[in-house]
Amino acid sequence: MTLRIPGGPTGPGTAGLRIAGLRERERERESEQEEVEQEEAEQEHGAERGGVPDGEQPVRPIPGIRHRPAVQPDPALVAEVDRRTEQWAKELDLVPPEWEDQFAGFGFGRAVCLGHPDHADVERLLVAARLLVAENLVDDCYCEDHGGSPEGLGARLLIAHSALDPLHSAPEYEASWRAGTTEDAPLRSYRSAMEHALPWAAPAQADRLRHDLGRLHLGYLGEAAWSLDGATPAVWEYLVMRQFNNFRPCLTLTDLVAGYELPAPLQALAPVQRLTALAGNAATLVNDLYSYTKELRAQHPHLNLPTVLARRDQLPERDAYLRAVEVHNTIMDAFESESAQLRTSVPDPVLARYLTGLHSWVAGNHEWHATNTYRYTLPDYWPQESA
Ligand SMILES: CC(C)=CCC/C(C)=C(/C)COP(=O)(O)OP(=O)(O)O
Ligand SMILES: [Mg+2]
Fold first, then answer.
1. What domains appear along the chain, each with residue ranges and CATH number?
2. Which of 118 and 149 is assigned the larger pLDDT?
3. Average pLDDT in the chain
4. Which residues contact ligand 1 via a Cβ below 6 A?
5. Nearest CA to ligand 1 atom 16
6. Among 124, 225, 318, 386, which one is most buried in terms of CB atoms within 10 A?
7. Can you state which reaction this protein catalyses (predicted)?
8. What is the band of 45 on the pLDDT scale with cuts at 50, 70, 90?
9. Maximum CA pair distance of the chain?
10. Nearest residue CA, atom 5 of ligand 1?
């Protein structure tokens, strides 16, 4: 996503932002060269490993990051989810040939199998996998580096949201809406992924999913607005944006994928909402930390927590990164201690299962990031022996 800091903001307290703007331009120049080198390295790397992430890779966690080990998925199940997800993507013409390596390198099957160890069956894992593909296509093609832009994003997301939450209007507009919501790959994938999800979802689960995807779109719009303004948000503002531009729609599928329903009155309880948000925020900051170097190299500069901390708190890059690890850990600690308390104060077995599902998803997400060396590499901030 493009971050423009034209002459930099002016006024009291903005000196650090101007310095950050200069540093950013410097970094942009350096990164042009690095990008070329990185592309060459990635091509070589992808070719060496057939472009497929290696599930056997040792987990290399960020030193000091709070995480739990994930339940290891059955490789045959991962392969089956990958095969059928790829087949679906081909049928809908979602992935041009030049993105095929990246599609394989993402490891959609591994991501959903790691996140849902208590899945009921492969069909339900496929619901999660198709949605994950669609969410990433919308992010990449509408917002980020696969043709995305903050310009016009609101209108694109509005129409995309109607591929999930259909138009109910005068019948004479039905055909145009239908045609208009299959025009590109993000639209086709959203529409089809939702159609595949609905038979498995209770009405309140479907509504929860639409609501969480609406939150996601709100987050994208906030990020785009800062990008258009050339602004770096305050740290707390960034955290608000990232609470919505968040993995939450994936986590809250946990009961659907496991084949039960967390009833809406339980799901709506304030502590359940808080724990869902804490789990989503911990999981999403894991992405900020593991994707940090990838985002420094990105075609367009990309906000993440270490970058925002460096600019707004005027911290050296390494200190900002380590501070972001601490923020993540604080959120993880709150998630763990408060979920233990809630299990005691509301001893409901379905709620307990949902909370276990959130924990599993958070652990699986960490493992996926820490082993996906096709997408992510850590910064060189630790002596060799502890990294
Ligand atoms: C719901 C979903 C999977 C959306 C994709 C975007 C998102 C909410 C993320 C948390 C991924 O973040 P990011 O765009 O930074 O991803 P990479 O760092 O490129 O892996
Ligand atoms: Mg990221």
1. 62-372 (1.10.600.10)
2. 118
3. 87
4. 132, 135-136, 139, 216, 245-247, 249-250, 284, 287, 291
5. 287
6. 124
7. (E)-2-methylgeranyl diphosphate + H2O = 2-methylisoborneol + diphosphate
8. very low
9. 67
10. 136
